[in-house]
Write a structure and sequence with these properties.
One of its GO terms (cellular component) is cytoplasm. This is glutathione transferase. GO terms for molecular function: glutathione binding; glutathione transferase activity. With about 220 residues, the protein is α+β, with helices and mostly antiparallel strands. The protein has two domains: about 100 residues, Glutaredoxin, CATH 3.40.30.10; about 110 residues, Glutathione S-transferase Yfyf (Class Pi), Chain A, domain 2, CATH 1.20.1050.10. It has nine helices and five strands, in the order E-H-E-H-E-E-H-H-H-H-H-H-H-E. A five-stranded mixed beta sheet has the order 4-3-1-2-5, covered by helices on one side. Helix 1 links the parallel strand 1 and strand 2. The two termini are about 15 Å apart. The mean pLDDT is about 95.
């Protein structure tokens, strides 16, 4: 069954889902929802995603929105296919869930204003608020100190293996480090920097970038 992802391949939340499906070797296709044309706010779309956000997925008769819920679903559904992303026992799963929540609650809300001001607005020909971006970058640096402490003990966030805890960070980290040119935020955090380089180097990341650059709408392992 080919998973249908409603959204844009260039947006970070659909990328989170794409990365998971590629790691799990699950085929998918993009049903384009153009944010620039406000298609995510049209009534027929909001009937499926009532918050007017992307993505949502259709898998046969099953529909689901919220990218972190989607990646948890597919990591569980295809637990024995592709990369194991959920750990080996209940305790490992709990640690993975912990760091997925950390990303959603403590990391992403600080990264988004930086990306919005330094990448999204300039890309649209508009001036971003650098002072606001700098303020959020200082707060983010303190959060990354917590990551640094954890990653001084384990190679990845939830242990010594790549899991959803790491995967969920990739799209926003790439937007921050590469889109905004903010690699300097990692200069004094050697363990975070090593972790980022390790997860950035995963083949699934390159496949997502190739998919975006080609303008393709279908992926098959």
């Amino acid at each position: 069954m080919v998973v249908k992802i409603y959204g844009m391949a260039s947006a970070v939340c659909p990328q989170r889902v794409m990365l998971c499906l590629i790691e799990k070797k699950v085929p998918f296709e993009i049903e384009l929802v153009d944010l620039s044309k406000m298609q995510h706010k049209e009534p027929h779309y909001m009937a499926k995603q009532p918050f007017g956000q992307i993505p949502y997925i259709v898998d046969g008769e099953f529909e689901l929105f919220e990218s972190r819920a989607i990646i948890r679903y597919y990591a569980t559904k295809y637990a024995e296919t592709g990369t194991k992303l959920l750990g080996e026992n209940l305790e490992e799963r709990a640690r993975i869930d912990q760091w997925i929540d950390v990303e959603a609650i403590n990391f992403n809300p600080l990264v988004f204003p930086i990306v919005f001001n330094l990448f999204i607005l300039p890309k649209q020909g508009l001036a971003g608020n650098k002072a606001e971006a700098d303020s959020f970058a200082k707060r983010l640096s303190k959060v990354l100190n917590v990551y640094e402490k954890q990653l001084s003990k384990t190679k990845y966030l939830a242990g010594d293996h790549f899991t959803l805890a790491d995967l969920t960070h990739i799209p926003t980290m790439r937007a921050l480090v590469e889109g905004c040119g903010m690699s300097c935020i990692l200069d004094d955090k050697k363990f975070v920097k090593a972790w980022w380089e390790a997860i950035r180097a995963r083949p699934a990341v390159e496949k997502v970038l190739e998919f975006m650059e080609s303008g393709a709408l279908q992926y098959s392992p």
